[in-house]
């Protein structure tokens, strides 16, 4: 069923979409009240909505889990993409908005399981579509907060707010600086003369099945031992050296990653930005232990390719994708060169996104 009008039995009443995101710096800092620099992907998730003629919510996606139905009052969606949609509906209802039974048609060209925040795009697109249909006045930051709660409470991933803020507010051609504590945000230009490319490792991952929640718990324990609200409040990396392992290394990554984001957000050369990306990956590999051999090998192959200034995993790790900062005009060739080496071992790495960052007029956030 590729045509939403077939599903709706006519034209839908409302549309909305939201992008995924590529994180350049600031990995695993959002749930530590820290800082991050994502950029939006060209790929998006789209939602079409109409009121249902019965007392059920009816969901359909040919690219996700197919058909899902659950009661509008008191029902629960099965796990899968339905849990994210259910979370958005229930949390909007909790604000006092009356949500009628809905028919929801979902399409996406975002790759799932590659660390590009397909779940946040689904949540934000659903909330935008509901806002368009029902006319409630929640702004984009509030939508991001509701989307985060939907993921935590209904999909059971204890995530920070970066992905939802990025999907709700990001621009494809500028980074978005986000302060996770205050939700301050502003656009930051990409380094001049650069472009990005995202290359998938071919190893899928889901946060719910990874050690993501374990890492968050370790950071919370490190904060308690240091007597701070969150690791963002530790400004001297030497302060973490008294912690026991593995808390010492987890905290060191977060503290240094925050410093990398703050430096980059002030404006640095393309070469320095690449160095910061490289340092971020080494920290994620060694101190935070969220990389895997395939990601390390793909990052090494990208760094060895001509025109690449820096490369690192993007997303929470445990599989998924890498991102490389390249000189303008050299990104695709660099990725193809890296993949010719990486895929020799029978892996299924592939180019996901050449992200436009230079040479086009800047857009306002969606």
UniProtKB/TrEMBL annotation:
It holds the Pfam family GHMP_kinases_N. Residues 84-168 form the GHMP kinase N-terminal domain. Its EC number is 2.7.1.6. Residues 269-341 form the GHMP kinase C-terminal domain. This is Galactokinase. It is an enzyme of class 2 (transferase). InterPro entries: Galactokinase, GalKase_N, GHMP_kinase_C_dom, GHMP_kinase_C_sf, GHMP_kinase_N_dom, GHMP_knse_ATP-bd_CS, Mevalonate/galactokinase, Ribosomal_Su5_D2-typ_SF. It comes from Telluria mixta. PROSITE patterns: GHMP_KINASES_ATP (PS00627).
């Amino acid at each position: 069923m590729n045509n939403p009008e077939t599903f709706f039995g006519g034209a839908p009443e409302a549309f909305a979409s939201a992008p995924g995101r590529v994180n350049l710096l600031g990995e695993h800092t959002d749930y530590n009240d820290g800082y991050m620099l994502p950029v939006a992907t060209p790929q998006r998730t789209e939602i079409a909505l109409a009121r249902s003629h019965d007392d059920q919510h009816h969901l359909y996606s040919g690219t996700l889990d197919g058909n899902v139905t659950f009661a509008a009052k008191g029902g629960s969606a099965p796990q899968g993409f339905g849990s994210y949609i259910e979370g958005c509906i229930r949390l909007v209802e909790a604000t006092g908005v009356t949500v009628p039974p809905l028919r929801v048609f979902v399409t996406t060209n975002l790759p799932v399981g590659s660390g590009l925040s397909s779940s946040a795009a689904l949540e934000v697109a659903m909330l935008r579509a509901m806002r368009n249909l029902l006319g409630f006045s929640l702004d984009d930051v509030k939508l991001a907060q509701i989307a985060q709660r939907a993921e935590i409470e209904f999909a059971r991933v204890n995530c920070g707010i970066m992905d939802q803020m990025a999907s709700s507010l990001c621009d494809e051609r500028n980074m978005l600086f986000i302060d996770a504590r205050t939700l301050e945000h502003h656009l930051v230009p990409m380094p001049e003369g650069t472009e990005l490319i995202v290359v998938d490792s071919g190893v899928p991952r889901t946060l719910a099945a990874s050690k993501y929640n374990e890492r968050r718990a370790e950071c919370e324990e490190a904060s308690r031992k240091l007597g701070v609200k969150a690791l963002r409040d530790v400004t001297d990396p030497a302060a973490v050296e008294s912690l026991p392992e593995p808390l010492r290394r987890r905290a060191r990554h977060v503290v240094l990653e925050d410093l990398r984001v703050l430096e980059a957000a002030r404006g640095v050369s393309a070469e320095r930005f690449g160095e910061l990306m490289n340092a971020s990956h080494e920290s994620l590999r060694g101190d935070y232990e969220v990389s895997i051999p395939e990601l390390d090998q793909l990052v090494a192959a990208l760094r060895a390719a001509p025109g690449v200034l820096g490369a690192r995993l993007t997303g929470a790790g445990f599989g998924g994708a890498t991102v490389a900062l390249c000189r303008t005009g050299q990104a695709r060739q660099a990725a193809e060169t890296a993949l010719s080496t990486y895929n020799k071992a029978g892996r299924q790495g592939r180019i996901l996104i050449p992200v436009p960052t230079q040479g086009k007029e800047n857009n306002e956030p969606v």
